Amino acid sequence: MAQKKKTDPIADLWNKLPPYLRNRYFLALVAFSFFMVFIDRHDIATQFRLHSTVERLEDDLQRYDDLIDEAEAEKLDMEANRETFAREGYFMQKDDEDVFIIVEEGEEER
Fold first, then answer.
1. The whole model's pTM is what?
2. Burial, 24: exposed, middle or buried (Cβ in 10 Å; 0-12, 13-18, 19+)?
3. Which of 7, 16, 78, 95 makes the best surface tag, with the fewest CB within 10 Å?
4. Rounded CA gap, 12 and 16, in Å?
């Protein structure tokens, strides 16, 4: 009787792969790439979150710059019209004049 030769199915599968896929340098490159893309501290998901955070912070910076510009314009206007601001905002008056405050119905007093 002839004995059947036992073959290892994993070795057969390994030998069916093209030679470049069996190369240890190629396998090391694939393992390194997988590690860098999915497992490393600076993986793709982390980079995406950081990019989103940077964009949000840049938007906030632009919004705050606009608010600062508006506040500076208001400050310049207030300094130029100091008397008008004091009279209308705080009901101030000169010594020789009387101020009458008229409040319409539905308006609250300041």
1. 0.51
2. exposed
3. 95
4. 6
- Write down the pLDDT at residue 89: 73
What's the 3-state SS for the chain?
Answer: CCCCCCCCHHHHHHHHCCHHHHCHHHHHHHHHHHHHHHHCCCCHHHHHHHHHHHHHHHHHHHHHHHHHHHHHHHHHHHHHCHHHHHHHHHCCCCCCCCCCCCCCCCCCCC
Render pLDDT for 10-60 as a digit per residue (tens, 0 to 9): 888 888 888 888 888 999 999 999 998 888 888 888 999 999 999 999 999
Please enumerate, as own/partner, the contacts of 8-16 that have beta carbons within 8 Å and a separation of 24 or more.
none
Tokens of 99: 């101020």
Cα–Cα distance list, 59 to 17, 28, 56, 64 (Å): 52, 42, 5, 9
Angle between helices 82-90 and 44-80 (to 10 degrees): 100
pLDDT tens digit sequence for 72-97: 998 888 888 887 777 777 777 777 77
